[in-house]
Amino acid sequence: xxxxxxxxxxxxxxxxxxxxxxxxxxxxxxxxxxxxxxxxxxxxxxxxxxxxxxxxxxxxxxxxxxxxxxxxxxxxxxxxxxxxxxxxxxxxxxxxxxxxxxxxxxxxxxxxxxxxxxxxxxxxxxxxxxxxxxxxxxxxxxxxxxxxxxxxxxxxxxxxxxxxxxxxxxxxxxxxxxxxxxxxxxxxxxxxxxxxxxxxxxxxxxxxxxxxxxxxxxxxxxxxxxxxxxxxxxxxxxxxxxxxxxxxxxxxxxxxxxxxxxxxxxxxxxxxxxxxxxxxxxxxxxxxxxxxxxxxxxxxxxxxxxxxxxxxxxxxxxxxxxxxxxxxxxxxxxxxxxxxxxxxxxxxxxxxxxxxxxxxxxxxxxxxxxxxxxxxxxxxxxxxxxxxxxxxxxxxxxxxxxxxxxxxxxxxxxxxxxxxxxxxxxxxxxxxxxxxxxxxxxxxxxxxxxxxxxxxxxxxxxxxxxxxxxxxxxxxxxxxxxxxxxxxxxxxxxxxxxxxxxxxxxxxxxx
Length: 511
Description:
This protein is of the alpha/beta class.
């Protein structure tokens, strides 16, 4: 009798899994309607949300709305018993700031300005400085040329010389300012002055938050003071920035040490704020310890100094509400006994517009194992028609980015779902390695990709017209096309969540 009972249980389990694999997703996809998308978007992109800047009261209102809807849909909390993954930001108001070079005092915000991430205080005096050209260090170039800069003040030019090329994306590039400062620190420098044509504005710095580094990262990366100096400083020495650039040219130069008294004083006035990613899930069945992510960013760029609201209906209100409706569709399927085999995680992230902050925080502090995350389907703008697209299929397309990276399963699954159900034109334009926009590296999927998780990014191509303008409003959205795109992504997610195997990771991520 024991054997018969065991056989019966195994048979029932097999039938259950088979039913989940073959359940028809169409009734659930059809719940992603134009009416509901418009209802939610009219709230997310309303004046009440004030453009959803990171951080802002409007952003918190949007997060609270998403959380409330997840609860109403029957979507479970994605971070243990919470729908939020919180992370801290900080900004620096610099209560004391002075620079004196060669006996001349310079004016803060007019002649010089601090780097955004600084130690709490600095009171430094130097008798000399070392000029190292552009301060670039990579596998092919070292502008320090073994110069001894330990305990010294280092000066370099911002940016890069004409003709300099690197395959690394912006934040990993050797010309990225933070990496130049880190290289100076690694060489032993005590402080850095960065020659720049333009200073960051006082208003931008005093009102601009950045992710708060962990203690270890703060000690490692932010332990030396760094300041931008402009032509007002350089011309006091009888030169100009353009003359310096011309004299250096494209190549490296021997570092130059010059005797000159320099005094720097700085006292921080740091303030902190807390924001959150909003995370919900629909738990899987027999593969519940494997995960599929569906993501979008719910922040936008806020308001300008004149009080104009940047509504962000397409960017990325369209992605936000599409993820919400997909979460509802999966929750409905589970309630009817046809839920996914894998756990599907729906994450709306903050701070994308400021530098992919929320997704970066998640990738460094994952709630679920990244090696058990089969894929991330990221949506950033699917509500409009690309104003630059001149082909006849403008009412029936979506740009798909990432199809030829990380996994050969990606296009097969996505194209299969689309061909069976929605028949959109899947345009791979932005996967061209020569695409100057480098779209693959510009939204939240990249923080999954750099950790090895296969990703697809869905996008309408809007880089002009109302992009990052107050005119990105709900009335401009093509809800019929948006719903069709969201349904196609839902079908793709359905297949990825229910197939036998996780996606292969058989391709390298090319830069």
